[in-house]
Amino acid sequence: MGILTGAELHILTKESIDDPMLCSNYFKKNKLTIVTLPPLYCKQLELPTMRYIITAGSASDENLVNAVKSKGLYINAYGPTEDTVCTTYYLHDSLKTYNRIPIGRPLVNHQVYIMKDNQLCPIGMPGELRICGFGVAEQYLNREELTENKFVNNPFGEGRMYCSGDLARWLPDGNIDFMGRIDKQVKIRGYRIELEEISNTLM
């Protein structure tokens, strides 16, 4: 994405990523203007002033927003790998307050639906976040049963609908409130962890 828009793309070494101070110094030395980071990792850094600070991979919070909002425009992004990583984004508005930092609105060429029992949820009612649009994958490689469960026909138009397993609700202002999972999956530092797989292995 950066290269296509004429930007310079920096991919840090594992050594730099493992040391927050090295990472922070790299940002300053190379005068980076846009970064995308997991929220928990972002909290560990001393960020220089930038154009955009984007977090994604797990839930953001007010403490993080307060720490970075003076360093540049803050965006909280959301998106599973199955939708080419990014689905929605929220550009922080200092005039609004929320219990949780929203994940915003769908990107262009994406449609997001919040559904329960295959019915659309009204504003404020929690349901599963489902995704249609340009970035949705076709299937899981060599996982037919999982593909059938997660990639279904789009009842509202053409193409496939991805059932994310994420719990969310529409807010009155049109943003989406991410509320967790409808199953027992958790995220640790942006990695998906299936608790039932761990339980089965222990048993």
What does this protein structure show overall?
It is a single chain. The protein has 203 residues and is α+β, with helices and mostly antiparallel strands. Helices cover 21% and strands 32% of the residues. The strands form 3 sheets. Strands 6, 7, 8, 9, 10 and 11 form a 6-stranded antiparallel beta sheet that branches. The mean pLDDT is 93.
List keywords for this structure.
203 residues; alpha+beta; globular; six-stranded antiparallel β-sheet; 6 helices; single chain
Give the tally of β-strands: 13
The fraction of residues in strands falls at: 25-35%
Number of H/I helices: 6
**Rg calculated over all Cα atoms:** 18 Å
**Strand/helix succession:** HHEHEHEEEEEEHEEEEEH
**What is the typical, i.e. mean, pLDDT?**
93
Oligomer: single chain
Shape: globular
Helix content estimate: 10-25%
Largest sheet, if any? 6 strands, antiparallel
- Runs in which pLDDT lies below 50 for 5 or more consecutive residues are none
Distance between the termini: 44 Å
The structural class is: alpha+beta
